[in-house]
Amino acid sequence: MGIEKILKELLKVKLGTLSNSLEERLTTTSLEKLNELTLNIFNFNSEEDVLKIIC
After folding, report:
1. Whole-angstrom distance, CA of residue 41 vs CA of residue 25
2. Is 2 helix (H, G, I), strand (E, B) or coil?
3. How far apart, in whole angstroms, are the C-alpha atoms of residue 13 and residue 30?
4. Distance from the first to the final alpha carbon of the chain
5. DSSP sequence for 12-54
6. How many whole angstroms separate alpha carbon 54 and alpha carbon 24?
7. Which residues contact residue 7 at a Cβ distance below 8 angstroms, ignoring those fewer than 6 apart?
8. How many whole angstroms separate alpha carbon 10 and alpha carbon 32?
9. pLDDT over 80 (residue 1)
10. DSSP 8-state code for residue 3
């Protein structure tokens, strides 16, 4: 399983369901950003928190 799929599963556990737009953004996000998101998983309380790192 790739980092993108693992991250999506972790975010679903942390935040509940993910919006289609966030799932699409994760699909096109660089490996560097995916790694940063994974390291910050415990700091997220909303999709907006995730998007702050992606954008």
Report:
1. 16
2. coil
3. 22
4. 25
5. HHHHSSPPHHHHHHHHHS-HHHHHHHHHTGGG-SSHHHHHHHH
6. 12
7. 26, 34, 37, 38, 41
8. 17
9. no
10. H
| Interval 21-33: pLDDT, tens | 999 999 999 999 9
Indicate the average pLDDT of the chain: 95
Q: Count the residues in the chain.
A: 55
CA dist 54 and 37 (Å) reads 8
Q: How far is it, in rounded angstroms, from Cα 34 to Cα 40?
A: 10
Q: How far apart are CA 45 and CA 47, in angstroms?
A: 7
Please state the pTM of the whole predicted model: 0.89
CB 53 within 8 Å of CB 34: no
Per-residue pLDDT averaged across 46-52, rounded? 96
Q: pLDDT band at residue 50, thresholds of 50, 70 and 90?
A: very high
